[in-house]
Amino acid sequence: MKVVSVKNVSKFYGQKQVLDNVSFDIEEKEIFGLLGSNGAGKSTITSIILGLEKQSSGNVVLFEGQKKNLKKRIALVPQSTAFYKDFSVEKNLRFFASVCGLKSKQIKPRVKFLMSWLSLEPFKDVKAGHLSGGYQRLLNIACSLVHDPELIFFDEPTVGLDPKMRQMFWLKIQDLKAAGKTIIITTHYMDEAEKLCTKLALMKNGKMLVIGKPRELISQYGGIKVMIFNITGGVKKEDIQKIRTVLNQFTVISRDELLFIPFEQEHTFEKVIAVTEWLMKKGYNISSSITKEPNLEDVFLNITGEGMKQQE
Amino acid sequence: MKLFDIIWKEISLIKAQKIAIALIFLYPFIVVGLLGSAFTGVDISRMNQIKIGFVNNLNFESEIVDSLVTSYSNLSITQYDNEDLLRAGLYNKQVISGVILRGDAPNKQLKVDLLYDNSNLLSSRFFMEIAKALIQKTTSDYAQKNLGRIWTTIKAFGSNIDEEIRNVEDFKSQLSSAELALDDLELKLNAVEYKEGDVNSVRASFNKFKSEYESLKGPLAQNKETLKKLPGQIDEASVLISSIVKNLEYFDSVLLQDSDKNLLNEQISHLNSINSKMSKWKSMSLQLITITEKISDETSEINKSFSKVDAIFEKATLGARSIEEVKELIASARESKITIESKLDSSSALLSKFSKELVEFSKIDPKVLAQPVIFYEGKIYNVDPFGILVSNALVVVLILTCMLLTSIIFIMEKTENVTLRLELSPTSKFILFLGKIIGQLVIALIEAGIIFVVAFAKIPLPFSILGVTHLGFGLVTSANLFELFLAVVLVSLTFICLGLFIASLVKNQSTAILTSLLVIVPMLFLSGIVLPLEFMEPTMQLVSSILPMTLANNLLIGLIIKGLTISQLWFEAGLLLFYSLLSFGVVFFKTKL
């Protein structure tokens, strides 16, 4: 079932067009990622899908047109926390459960489950404002999921979290997927999108650039691997020229003490050995080397001509 | 259940702010307690903290000054030596208003300069009016005394005037009598009136007589000797006649015939008659001789009398003239009498009128002039003035808490991003707002309840705390409790909706507070709570009359003080409801929540 169907949606704020003929579909139980830099239109399309804003043109259909109890079936986990800081964890959850339509009998077990699932049990009587950032985010998720929605929007869910918390978040999202939820994630983090999403859409300036599975996008648009050598003192220009000539690769770049050598997919290991030996023979001190596989960042870079991180 | 949760959420959010809790519970006590303690039993006669200064610049000794100092023990009156010291006293607030007495003489108007500290709009003028009333009372007493003295004099004068009127009447009657006398005199004069011409004609006749007399005098003087002889001759003739008679009588005796006797007797009788006549002739001749002698005698009275008669004629002439003059004087006197009489009549009329007016005047009590009006205070509402403070305090507390708390919490929900979650929730916007409003209403009703308990209860304390012997002020009101409850709900609802409206316009709490205060403070000053509405320009009074705070104050005062019903206060209630619905409508349709 198509949980979300967006067809030719455009949005204007006055004269300014923020969405330009965007179309995509999201299947049930998918984790759909919306990638793009600031101002790409991710939040706008999310708001339109959630019903917070109206599109200027186009069509958005949720749950194949089923409109009954629509708000009970969708949820947003906003980027910034959205709960009462002066209420305790449990009180927040109970309140939002109530306004989200849960009956009295349903509230208690649901709240208990969420607190347990998100490890909030120890903090149930603690004022939300007194929680650490990570646990506030968890409470944020809990408040959004209190009514057990089918379609969940995550807006930049792991921004500002430490790696451990990020990992935990990813696990929870995957738990939700396993529970049959359809998830839409907007994120800046390519690794997150790559790790979590079953389908991705790249946006820029209100336009949908590409849409597809992460691996497909990488293989199609990601480009090639790149060897990066960290050489103490850098490499001389003539040596860089030699490497280019030998490898027949004119995209060899040296920047400070880093040497970037793009490799084709085949013969990767042999070429690594050959270049490494040559550089060592020349007396260069190679402090480290890595192989950078093409990723979504590269996909974005290759499609948009600019890096996500550069823009940030 | 959902609605209850939303209501409880609203109350809980307020509860979560410790300061808000303190405000909710302390505020009513503080506001009502302070205001009540400060202003309970406002009574001019007990306001002995009114300090009034005065300077005596009178150029004469006056009992007004003594009255000022001694008569008003419930006010603090201080005398200063000069105006500069009095002004210094005002600047330093040693006195709250000042009076400078100026005057040249006790019989001239006093001039009073009233000084007051006009840096305070309301109370300073109030105290100035008290000082003015004080002076008016003092001078009124003084004037009353003077009027009393004048009245006594007027009364005495009045009785003297009556006597004068009587004297005038007497004089008039005397004039009338004099006129009668004059009439009588005139009549007499008319009786004896003779003119100079008459006198002259008599004189002429007299002169003619005199000349004839003189003309006779000569011959008489000439015949005086002859005349002297006449008596002798008459005597001789008489003797002769007597002898004749005797002879005839003889003849009578001898005659024989009676006819002859008769004839003889007749002749004898004739002769006797002639003889008796001759004696008369003798006396006449003697008289004639005497007259002749007198006429001849220049020294005789007859001759002397001519000069006297001349003199008399002179006098008669003068008399005639005098009579003329007297008659003229009489005529003139008559005219004068008429003139005087008419003037006396008018004077009498004037005096009568004056006397009547004095009588009427004297019926007026001098107190009426000195103090034409005595004021008796009449309150049209039988209520403790503290009741007004309760209404005012309630409005102030409700507007501050309802507007501020509502807007702060609404903004807080926006800043904490909760509104996004609520917007996405399946609960309708209407229920969300309704719960919010009812939650705030509960708080407002708690506050109103506290205020009413403090106002209406009067619980004696077992011991005095800082002079306070009982809790509560024991206010009595005829207000219907249910209507009072409805009014409080309506007022709170209006302020809550206004708070929501303000919150919908701003983005953060500090701006919400500032904006709320920006609305509250002007309304406070224009509502009639701080300053009387009557002080304002008419246009502003009109504006003020439709402000929510004014309407709320009027509604509560109408119920608590005036004993009116909400239906009678339909304008205030209706307009407040309108404001509520309008604000709520704007917020509801404008806000995404």
TrEMBL record, chain A:
Transmembrane segments: none
UniProt keyword list: ATP-binding, Nucleotide-binding, Transport
GO molecular function, one term: ATP hydrolysis activity
Domain ABC transporter intervals: 4-230
A Pfam family the protein falls into: ABC_tran
Domain of life: Archaea
Record bears the keyword Nucleotide-binding: yes
ATP-binding is among the record's keywords: yes
Protein family according to the UniProt entry: Belongs to the ABC transporter superfamily.
Protein name (database record): ABC transporter ATP-binding protein
TrEMBL record, chain B:
Keyword Protein biosynthesis in annotation: no
Domain ABC transmembrane type-2 residues, every copy: 348-592
Family per similarity comment: Belongs to the ABC-2 integral membrane protein family.
The keyword tRNA-binding is assigned to this record: no
Membrane-crossing segments per the record: 20-42, 386-411, 431-453, 459-477, 484-506, 512-533, 545-564, 570-589
Bilayer topology: Multi-pass membrane protein
Protein name as catalogued: ABC transporter permease
InterPro entries hit by this protein: ABC-2_transporter_component, ABC2_TM, ABC2_TM_bact-type, ABC_2_transport
Molecular-function GO terms, alphabetical: ABC-type transporter activity
Compartments, as annotated in UniProt: Cell membrane
Keywords from the UniProt entry: Cell membrane, Coiled coil, Membrane, Transmembrane, Transmembrane helix, Transport
Chief place where the protein resides: membrane
Species annotation: Candidatus Iainarchaeum sp
GO CC entries: ATP-binding cassette (ABC) transporter complex
